[in-house]
Write a structure and sequence with these properties.
- By secondary structure, this protein is an all-alpha fold.
- It contains 15 helices and no strands.
- The chain is globular and about 60 Å long.
- The structure holds protoporphyrin IX containing FE.
């Protein structure tokens, strides 16, 4: 069971751990601000407030997509590491290796885009990368190698975490708590972080392996174009990887809510049978849900489209419902300590909940055929990523900043920054959703004048988000780099 002690001893970081953890978090907040600025440039360009030439727009879109998804993966890996290490042995070298491989991969991606002009987007759909007209096949290859490096780093981290979990719990089934699905006395101290971590390791390792297969196929195709790939198979593998990777960020990020929320409410938040059932179901669902990205591919076998439709209605609900219900029950009648980490956690639950709604609507075949190529889709995923997952990671960061002075942060500037982020975020995502309603095409550098009003509203919302995020980045960066207080060992009052 997650502790009620605000800053427990077993979460203290050694000097080496703190350095690596800080590297993750400081890099992540800096990258988020930079990638958001790229996003703002795109939104302003779509709204005719800035002139980005189309080739530059698609390079910026490729950088923003790959950069945001990668950074979200990086920061939520740090969330998982921070809590999982309390229950199983994790080796710092694996955590550091993941960071170094991420950096090397990021350098390849940046080089391929800004030196090699690669603009084939983060989803690199066949045969676009190898047949670009403004970039060479070699720069596409460097982009693929960048992804491979990032994937290898994450797999290393997962292998280390898997070994740690198996050493303590015997196997994945017991770590997921499957022995208690149909009866028996559930061990209330069974850590939620282990259940969520195990699910992520199983599902995302498969996704990353699918990605590795397709990336290697691309590399072969780039250097030996005689070897033609099957476009449908390639697309399936790409989306399996991409969808799984970004979904894993929610499941890693939510560990922060499971671990931290009870400390701020002062109420225990233990494992229950519905909790175990929902994580078990989601472990399967999340692996097979990706065909909902391919409902418009008429060559896709019919049974896969049907699976995509049914599972996408079912997949998001188990873990989300059990988390939302559990978290709200934990907050109810609790005398919650309303400081930055607790506010960010509540925001994250709202963002996750509200972001799911347009996703489920889009996962319905009849709607999907009309909406999937519109800005409805960036509307849905920006909703749950910007207002759901990112606040989960920010909650941990603020919590750790608080641990340095033994009190949860809650300055006047924090209290202004959060509403600014929320209002800006809502304006930004609603502008995308409204554009979807108006059938504005997604991934377009040039927009019709009729589309400009939603683009411009989106740009205003984005500017507010960036203002708030820049403040958070400086605040968190400065807080993390501060040496821990002497009294670090002492526990803050509950
Ligand atoms: C202020 C914050 C942000 C701004 C201004 C922004 C802006 C944009 C814009 C304008 C697009 C292109 C939309 C279109 O299809 O027309 C886009 C795409 C994208 N954004 Fe963001 N974004 C922001 C935050 C984020 C965050 C936090 C994430 C995820 C962690 C993210 C991930 C993505 C991805 C993956 C794409 C590519 C989608 C594709 O290839 O179709 N963005 N963003």
């Amino acid at each position: 069971m997650a502790t009620l002690t605000m800053y427990p001893d077993d979460e203290r970081l050694s000097r080496g751990e703190r350095s690596v953890f800080n590297l993750y978090l400081v890099s992540a907040v800096a990258l988020f601000v930079l990638m958001m600025l790229l996003g703002l440039a795109m939104r302003m360009s779509q709204g005719n407030w800035l002139a980005l030439a189309p080739d530059l727009f698609y390079r910026v879109l490729s950088m923003h997509g790959a950069g945001m998804v990668g950074t979200m993966g990086l920061v939520t890996t740090a969330v998982m590491w921070f809590f999982l290490r309390k229950y199983v042995t994790l080796h710092l070298w694996a955590f550091l290796a993941n960071y170094v491989l991420f950096l090397l991969g990021a350098l390849c991606i940046i080089g391929s885009i800004f030196i090699g002009n690669y603009a084939g987007l983060w989803t690199f759909l066949y045969p676009l990368p190898s047949q670009g007209m403004v970039w060479s096949p070699q720069s596409a290859a460097v982009f693929m190698v960048g992804y491979l490096l990032i994937g290898v780093g994450m797999l290393l981290f997962y292998l280390d975490a898997a070994a740690g979990i198996i050493r303590v719990f015997g196997n994945f089934a017991r770590a997921l708590g499957l022995q208690w699905l149909f009866g028996g006395q559930i061990d209330p101290s069974h850590p939620k972080a282990v259940v969520a971590g195990t699910m992520v390791i199983i599902a995302n390792s498969l996704g990353i392996l699918a990605g590795a297969v397709v990336l290697v196929l691309y590399l072969i195709n780039i250097y030996d174009p005689q070897m033609v790939l099957n476009a449908l198979l390639t697309k399936n593998l790409t989306y399996w990887f991409g969808h799984m990777y970004i979904n894993a960020t929610i499941y890693m990020g939510v560990i922060a809510v499971y671990e931290l929320l009870p400390r701020y409410t002062g109420k225990p938040y233990s494992v229950s049978r519905p909790f175990l059932w929902s994580w078990a179901a989601s472990t399967v669902f999340v692996i097979i849900v990706f065909p909902h990205h391919l409902l418009m591919d008429y060559a896709e076998p019919r049974w896969m489209a049907v699976t995509g439709q049914i599972i996408s209605h079912g997949a998001l609900f188990p873990v989300f419902l059990v988390t939302a219900y559990g978290a709200l029950a934990n907050v109810y009648h609790s005398g919650m300590r309303w400081t930055m980490p607790s506010r960010l956690m509540m925001l994250s639950l709202f963002g996750w909940a509200a972001g799911i709604v347009p996703a489920v609507i889009d996962g319905t075949i009849s709607v999907n055929r009309v909406m999937h190529n519109t800005q409805w889709v960036p509307g849905h995923f920006h909703f749950y990523l910007l207002l759901g997952v990112l606040p989960m990671a920010l909650a941990l960061m603020y919590h750790v900043v608080g641990s340095r002075r033994q009190a949860p942060p809650d300055s006047g500037a924090d209290r202004i920054g959060l509403p600014l982020y929320l209002v800006g975020g809502l304006v930004f995502v609603m502008a995308f959703l409204d554009a979807g309603r108006l059938s504005v095409a997604r991934r377009m550098a040039t927009h019709l004048p009729e589309w400009w009003p939603t683009d411009q509203a989106g740009a205003i919302g984005a500017a507010l988000v960036i203002l708030a995020m820049s403040y958070f980045a400086v605040r968190i960066g400065a807080g993390l780099l501060k040496a821990p207080a002497d009294g670090d060992r002492a526990h803050a009052a509950g």
